[in-house]
Design goal:
The chain is mainly alpha-helical. It has one domain: Nucleotidyltransferase, domain 5. It contains five helices and two strands. Strands 1-2 form a two-stranded parallel ribbon. α2 links the parallel β1 and β2.
């Protein structure tokens, strides 16, 4: 099976279509939107790195994704090589 890369613009359009009229839940979501050169209505974004309930786990500071996964989801992540993308999509 041959893998074919999708052009950036194609991925951008696909992701934009998926997100249309949806509430986006992710960790540090601003970073992902910036990478894709996309915007999303602020009222439809739930950033787990900024959620007051999760900030309590880190004494008011931005919680580390690894700690959120352990404390909230009861799973261990980032033990070796890691990607925050996986958990962000898992949470959404």
């Amino acid at each position: 099976m041959a893998w074919v890369a999708i052009e950036f613009e194609g991925v951008q359009k696909e992701v934009s279509a998926i997100l249309m009229d949806k509430v986006l839940v992710a960790y540090a979501v601003k970073n992902y939107l910036e990478m894709l050169l996309l915007s999303h209505p602020r009222r439809d974004i739930r950033d787990t790195s900024r959620h007051p309930g999760f900030k309590k786990l880190s004494a008011g500071r931005t919680p580390v994704l690894k700690k959120l996964a352990r404390e909230v989801l009861r799973i261990e992540i980032q033990g070796g090589e890691h990607s925050g993308v996986y958990l962000s999509f898992l949470l959404s």
